[in-house]
Structure formats: C-alpha cells, structure tokens
Amino acid sequence: MPEEENVNVEKDTEPPVQPQTTEEVHSDVTGQKRPRPASGGDKPPKPRKKYAKRAPIWEHFLQREDPTKSYCKYCLAEIGCDSKKVGTSPMIGHIKVCKHYKDWVDKENQKVLSGDNKGNLKVIKYDPHLFRRSVNEMVVVNELPFSFVESEGWKRFCFNVLPMYKTFCRKTCSQDIVGMYLEEKEALKTLFRVEKQRVSLTTDIWTCPITSFNYMVITGHWVNTEWELQKRILSFKVITDHKGDTIAGQLLDCLEEWGIEKVYTITVDNARNNDKALDAFKEAFKLIGLQALVKDGKFIHMRCCAHILNLIVGDGLKKAQREVVAVRNAVKYVRSNFSRLKSFSLRCETAKLCRGNLPLDVVTRWNSTYLMLNSALKLRVAFEKMEAEDKLYCAYFLEEEEEKTKTKRIGPPTSSDWDKVSRLVKFLKVFYKGTVTFSASKTVTSTLCYNEIVDIERSLITKSHSPEEETRKMATAMRDKFDKYWDGLGNMNPLVIVASVFDPRNKMRFASLCFDQLYGKDTIENRKLHASVSSVMSSMYEDYSFKLSKPVENEEPDSQPQPENFVLSDDEDDCEGMLSLFDKVVGLKGNDDSCNELKMYLTEQTEARIENKLGFPYDVLSWWRRNCPKFPILSEFARDVLAIQASSVASESAFSTSGRVLDPYRSSLTPYMVEMLEIQQLLLHDSS
C-alpha cells in the first residue's frame, strides 16, 4: 500500500516551474505576461506602436467600406483618404472650398442662446454681417471716434455678450463706413438719373472754430413718387471764401456730381453775396436745358424766413434791452452754483410754485431769450422773495460787472421791469410760433409760411397803434424791417402765397381773405395782388401742362381727318373705324380739356379743418397722393411747390452736428471724411 500511495503522488505532482529571466518575460497585446525565448545574443524587438487618435477632420467625413475612400457630410463628394499615400490632406483641402460646409458654418454662427429672467433659453438668429454694419452705424450716429471699435471696453462687452463676434480695427471700420456712403450715394444718383427729379435746395456757410476752414453745406429737398418729403445733404465741402462766384461754382459742381438737371428754388439767408451767387447760378444753369429752371429762374431765389424773422425781432429787442438784461442777470445768479439754486427752490416751495426748467438764454438767439423770459415770468414771485429775503442776491447786483467800465450789474428786476417783460413775452409769442413753423425741415412748411407772415404783420399793425409808447415804438421799428422783406409781391417771392393755395383746406379763398384783412376789400392793392398771384399760377400751370402733355404725332394740323371724308379700308369694320377716328380727334384736342384742372381745383369746396385727436398735423401730401389721378398735371405742380423750404434751417442744423464731428479730438479728419460722416448721419437719422 505505501508503494501505491507514492505512485499517486507522482502522477498528481508537476515539476516545479523554473523562474524566467527579465528578458524572457514580456506582455502580450492583452496585457498578460507571456514567456518569450531568451534573446541571447539577438537584439530586442522594437516596441509595438500605439494607435494615434483620429484627426479632427474626420468630424466632417464618413468612411466607406473601402478604407481608402471617404465622403463629405455636406456635399457627399467622394474624397481619397489612403493613409499610406495621401492621408487626410485631400479632406482638409476639400473642406476649405466646400460651399455647403461654409453655409452650414454660417447657419451655426447665427444661432445664439438667449435667456430671460426666468432662466428659459431659446435660440435666436445671429447675422455677423448685420451686426458689423450696426456697429459701424453706431459709430456714425453717436459721433464716436473710429478707435472706439478697438477700445478695451467694447472688446470686453462683445466677449461677454456675444463671444462669437470678431472685433475689427479702426481702419476696417472707416473702410466699411466709406463703402456704406458710396453705396447710398450711387443709389441716390440712380434715382436722380432715372426719375429726373426736380429738387429744391437750401445752403449755408459755416467756419469751423477748430480748423478755421469754411464749409458750405447744400441740402436737397423733393417729394418722391410715393408723396413723401425727402431730405439729403448733397455736399459738405471746404470753400476758399464767401464770394458770390465761389458759391455759384460750388452749387454747379454739386449738381453736376449728383446728376441733378432740374432745380426749383434755392433758399438762402439775406447776405448780399447770396444775391450775386444766385444771379450767376441762373445764367450758368440755364444752359443745361429748357427744363433746368422754371420760368428761367424767375422765382428761384427764396429768402430764409427764419433769418428775416431774426432780423425783425432783433430790432425790437433793442428797445427793451435793460429789462431783458435785468432778468438775465437774475437767472444767471440762480444757476451759478448749487447753494443759490437751493435757496431759490426754497422760495419756490414757500410760494407753492413748481420751479421746473429755468434756462439761460444765448444772447445771439432771440428765441432762447423768449424761452428764458417766459420761464422766469412764471417764477416772478420767487424772484421777488429772493430780493426781499436773500442778502447775497441783492449784493450780487452791487458788484462791478466789468473792471474796465466799473459799472454795476443791471438788476435786480423791479416790479415795472416784470410788467414790461410780461408785455414783451405776449408780443413775441406770435414771432416764436412763426420761428418754430419755419424751422421744421422734416414736414411740409411751404403751405404754412404765408399764414405765419400774415399773423405777424397783423400783430405789428395792432401793436403799432398801441397806447403804450414803448410798445408802439418797438412795433414801428419792427414793421419797418418787415416791409423791407415781406411787403407785397415786390419784396416777397410769389411762391410763398402760391404754396398756401395748394393746401386743400385753404385754396385761393384763404389768400383772398388775407388780402382783405391786410389791404381792405375792393382796394386797388388788393385787386392787384390777387391778379398777380392768379397770373403766376396760371402761367406756371400752362408750362407744366405743355411739358407733361403728349406730343401730337401729326405734323400738320390741316391733315386732320374729317368724319365725312373718312374712308374705311377693306379689312376694317365700321365700329373700329369710328373709334380710331375718335381717338385721333381727341388726341388733337386733348390739351383744351386739360387746362381745366386748376379751375376745377380752385372752384371745388375746401376741405374741413378737423382737429386731429392724436395731435398730428394735417398731412397735405396724403391728400395729393389720393387725388393724384384726378389732377395728374396739377399734382406735379403741387409736388414741386410743396418741397420748397421756408428757411435754411435744414442746412444750418448740419453745423451743430459738424461741431461735434470736428471736435478737438477729431480735428485731423479729412474734408472728404467729414462730408461722408455728415451725409451718413443725416441718412441714418431719417431712416430711423
């Protein structure tokens, strides 16, 4: 038995495994160690290479069964991808030119996550080109320097709000703005070239205090085919002097640059050089063609009503100089520092007055003086309390205003001064209303111009017979200046009265009533003025009728076919022959019926003056748009007249903007860049 047990042990027991050397042990692919033969004198095999990650380009491609070919996810084009020959280079080259891939990228870039206060997210569209254009428009409208797009604050804002937006440099910004300007300019030149639009102009000259350059601005006004009043700055260029020949040359160059061949009126201020400039302009511009000017430019010169009104009121305010200065000094004291303003506000509270706005006037602008006097008059009680209770206020007027003259300040305003100021404010109210009407440039002002002039003249006539001597002297001095510019048609452009006729609420009846009120009924002056206006309207209407009527094809009037001698051809029937004959007869005599449009318009009932509940002014252009088919010739006459500007404020307003564009930090801008920014800014403001 012991021998059998030994036999079993020998069967179950395996010989012990001999330990292997380090060289004989290595890992297989699965990571498990397996023996390998001793190398002995042989070199060790190279380590197995690790598999590299797939190239990122494979995100846009799918591999076919053939490992050497792939196809694009966007255009399904087959691209080679043999790793032993070309690798991924063909795929990289294809994705750079794939249009479908670029479209996909643009769509993905336009998707932006936007959230509300509740944390809800939604995808909104993002257009990088539109956003970049909006940035350029912001630079123009807000009068920002081009370096704004490179500022750290703007870059940080874009990174936080719109990370995918790529900022650009100031040079790119200026190039984009120039491109926008050239694009709009070409579109407007095409409009003038195709539609042959007749334009009314306004112009003025400004000297920049920073660069000392003289800038001349020219603004165009017209009513388009949709009966909308349009306004564009056509030129903002440097001129050498203020001479008439220089101004005329600049006008001609501007119109030639834009391709404008028809001009109606030019509104300028009352400087003598403008008279000479318009005379030279008329002689040169008439050579362009027969339709370049209306009536050979007889009515082209339009004097700025706002400038005339400024001259009239300026003479009147000289008579009340002391009272105005006294109130101005009082307002200046209150606004000089916070403690004085607080003291004045305390007096307003005790008098139960609302202080509101208390502006200080600009001495050279009478309308700002009117607003200052009107506001101060409402706070008269508070100023009187300041005089009675505030010692510092009274001591202010005891100080010497100027060391050289050693004169004390005028004021404080006494009770009689306040009474005179009260009468002056009532007197100037009609002038201020007229200034506001004349200064509008985005609405039709030509139809309202004569109404304001008549109201001013009637007020001057009444005040010139006032029992108060000071008021009478003031009104007399202002009326002398008024007669110099607006006394009848001898000193007034008749288109001022004609424009009021094209208001369907007025027609000729309003002008006739004005003549009766100013000159009396059935007077020689009344009849002469009425006949002159009617003659001008009829004459100008005949010109429009002649230009717009179709020319007759027949060369000789005697060749007109007569009904009794008319012979039909064999291939025509009776009905067609008579209609053809009738069309020819009507074509020859059509001009006789067209002359009734003016008479028809003047004899029809005027439109009712219904007050607009929303406070909007009456829209004359909408009425003519609706009635254009009824008055095809007269409406063209009205289109040109309604575009006339009563003042040159549209051009002067550009100078307030240019003063900010050409500030000390932007004085290095070239004249071309200044003109471009001015034109673009007005265009963007009008389109908003």
Automatic annotation (TrEMBL):
GO terms for molecular function: DNA binding; protein dimerization activity; zinc ion binding. Transmembrane segments: none annotated. InterPro entries: hAT-like_transposase_RNase-H, HATC_C_dom, RNaseH-like_sf, Znf_BED, ZnF_BED_domain_contain. It is found in: Nucleus. Keywords: DNA-binding, Metal-binding, Nucleus, Transcription, Transcription regulation, Zinc, Zinc-finger. Residues 1-54 are annotated as: Disordered. PROSITE patterns: ZF_BED. Signal peptide: none annotated. SMART domains: ZnF_BED (SM00614). It comes from the Eukaryota. GO terms for cellular component: nucleus. Its main location: nucleus. Residues 52-105 form the BED-type domain. PANTHER family: BED-TYPE DOMAIN-CONTAINING PROTEIN, ZINC FINGER BED DOMAIN-CONTAINING PROTEIN 4. Homodimer. This is BED-type domain-containing protein. It comes from Arabidopsis arenosa.
